[in-house]
Amino acid sequence: MEVALALAAMAVLAIWICRRFGLPAILAWLAIGVAAGPQGLAWLNTNQIHLVGELGIVFLMFSLGLEFSLPRLWAMRSRVFGLGSLQLLLTGGLTGAISMVFGIEIRAAIVVGAAIALSSTAIVLKQLDELGWLNRRHGELSVSILLFQDLAVIPLLIIIPMLGSDSQGSTLLLELGWAVLKGTAVFAVLLWAGGYLLPRLFDQVASSRSDELFVLTTLLVALATGFLTLSVGLSMALGAFLAGMLLGESQYRQQLEADIRPFRDLLMGVFFVSVGMLLDLNTVVENGGFLLLLVPSLMLFKALVIALLAKLTGEKSKDALSTGLCLAQIGEFSFILIGMALTWQVISPDIGNVLVVSGVLSMCVAPALINNCITISKWVLGGGDRLINGQDDDEDDELILQEHVLLLGYGRVGQTLARFLRKDKTPYVALDLDPVRVREAKAGGEPVRFGDARRVDILRQAGLHRAKMVVISFDNRRTIFNLLDCIKQEAPDLPIIVRTRDDSTLTALESAGADQVIPESLEGSLMLVSQVLYRLGVPLPHILKRLEIVRRRHYRTLHGFYAGEAGNTENLHWVRLPSKAWAVGKPLHQVSLGHWQVTIEGAKRGKTRISATPNLMLQPGDMLLLQGKASKVERAERRLLDGF
C-alpha cells in the first residue's frame, strides 16, 4: 500500500511538472519507471508491471482502430499509402542500413529502422490541434503519414516475435507468411461476425441507457477480440485494432473512444513505466556525448528524408519541410516495438537503452519544434515558395466544426431547429443518446453523433471550443444544470440557450450560466396569442411589445393555468429500397401509403436529395422518408418492401 501511494504521488507530481513545461506525459511515466525500477528504488517487478502494461497496448490499439474505417482509408489512399509507405520504407531502410554498417545484426537493424521511422501520433496531433493546423497542408500531410505509420505497427507487432525465434532463411519467411495468413483469416472472421454482431450488441446496450453497461461492454469487446487473436498465436493488439476498426463507422465511435480513454491512458502509463524500468542509467552516463550527437543527427536526417519525399510528390518546399519537422521525433509506438524486441531478445539491452533515451530526448524537443516549424521552414528556405495569386498559405484554413451551432439533444425540438439551420446554411452538429434516432438521422445525412453530452471529452470532439453557440434542447433538469457547469468551465464566453418545459427553473438556469431560457409551453401560448391578436387587427409592433414585456417579466402573467395532455408525435423513418423491393420500378403515385396515414416527406438517391414527386420512378438503393405513427410507418415499410 505504501508503494502504491508513493507511486501515485510520484505520478501526479511528474505529470504536473511535464504539463507545466509543455512536455508530453509520456516523459513523466518513463521517469517514474527509471526511479522505481531496478536502476532506482527497485520498488517494482519488471515482469508483473509489463503484463499490466500490455493491456494498455490493447486499449490503445482499440482506440486507434476506432479512428479507421475501410472507406476512410480508401479516400485517403494516395497520401496515406503513397507518401506514408515511402516515408516508412525509406527512413527505416536507410536507418537500418546505416546501423548494419556500424556492426548491428540484420534483425536488430530492422527493429532500429522501424523504431526510428515511427513518429509520435499523440504529440503531433495534440500540437497541431492546439495550433489549429490540422487542416493546413503540412498538417494534412503529417496526419496522412501518421495514419500509415499507425497501420504499419500491426504487421510490425506480428514480425517482431518471428524475428526473435530461431528460424533462419526460408523458414523465417514461411513463419512470416503463416502469421500474415492467420492475421488475414482472423480479420475475415471478425469482419463477418463483427459486422453483424457488434452493431446489434451496442444497439441493445445503448438502449438500456446504462453508462456502466456501456463501459463494461466496450472493455469486454476490446479484451475478447484481443484474446481471440492471442489464441491463434497473434498479438492481442491486433485483435483489439480490428474490433475498433469494425466499430469505427458506427454512431457509437466517439462514445466508445471516450469511455475507454481513461483505462487506456492509465494502462498505457503503466506500460511506459515498464519501458522506463528497462533504462540502464550507467549506459546513459557512459554514452552521454554520443547521445547528444546522435539525437539531433537522427532528427535532422528523418526531417530531411520526409521533406524530400513530400517535395518529390509535388508538395511546396515550405509544406514539405514543415511536415518533416513535425514528424522528426521518435514515437510512442517505437517504445512498444523496443519493449517487444527486448522481450523477444531481438535487440540487446544496450541498443534498447540507446533507442529509449534517444526517443525520450526527441520527444522533449518535439513540441517546440512543431510550434515553430513554419518559422524554421521560412528561415531555411528564405521565405518559402510563392503561392499562386500571391496568397500566403499561412492564413488559417476553415476548420471542420468551426463557428457552428452545437445541438445537445436531437429530439423533436432539436430536429426542428436543425431544419431551419440547414435552410439558412448555418453549420451545426448534434449529440444524442438515442441509438435509433442517431442511426435514422445519419441515414438521412444529418450531422448527428451518438454521445453523452455530460462528458467533456465528447463535447470537445464536437467542437465545443470552436462553436458559435450551444443549444440544450432536451428536458432533464439535473443533466442541464450539470451541462451548464461543465460548458461554462470549458468555454465561459460561449452563449448557451436552454429549452425547458416550463419556467419553474428559469431563474436558476440563468444563474447557472444560461444566456437565454425558452419555456416551451409558455412560448407556445405566446405564439397562439400573437396569431389571435394579429387576426383581430391589433398592430404587429404592439403585439411584439406586449410579448417582449411578458418575456422580460419571466412569464409571470402566464401562471395559473392547467397544462393539457400532450398528443403523440409522429415519427420520421428512412427506408432503403433493395433491388427486389416491391416498390422498385414503380412511380411514386402508384405506391399508395395513404391507407396507413403515412406520407412520404422526402427522397434520396445516393447522397443527393431528390424531389418526391408523384411521377418519381423508384430505383434500387433509393431512400424514402416516411412520416406517421410508429405502428403505421412499420406497416407502410412492409408495403414498400413486400407489397402487402
Task: Kindly describe this structure.
It comes from Ferrimonas lipolytica. The chain crosses the membrane at residues 49-68, 80-102, 108-125, 145-164, 176-198, 219-246, 266-283, 290-310, 322-344, 351-370. Residues 560-642 form the RCK C-terminal domain. Keywords: Antiport, Ion transport, Membrane, Potassium, Potassium transport, Transmembrane, Transmembrane helix, Transport. It is found in: Endomembrane system. The structure is a single chain. Residues 383-399 and 560-569 have low confidence and may be disordered. The radius of gyration is 29 Å and the shape is globular. The chain has helices at residues 2-20, 25-36, 46-66, 70-75, 77-101, 106-117, 121-131, 137-163, 169-207, 211-231, 236-247, 253-277, 281-286, 288-312, 317-326, 332-343, 349-371, 373-381, 412-423, 435-443, 456-461, 477-490, 506-512, 520-535, 540-552, 630-642; strands at residues 405-408, 428-432, 448-450, 469-472, 496-500, 516-519, 571-576, 599-605, 608-610, 623-628. It has 26 helices and 10 strands. Strands 3-2-1-4-5-6 form a 6-stranded parallel β-sheet, sandwiched between helices. It folds into 3 domains: 44-181 and 260-375, Na+/H+ antiporter like fold (Up-down Bundle); 405-556, 3-Layer(aba) Sandwich (Rossmann fold); 571-642, Regulator of K+ conductance, C-terminal domain (Alpha-Beta Plaits, 2-Layer Sandwich), CATH 3.30.70.1450. The protein is an alpha/beta fold.
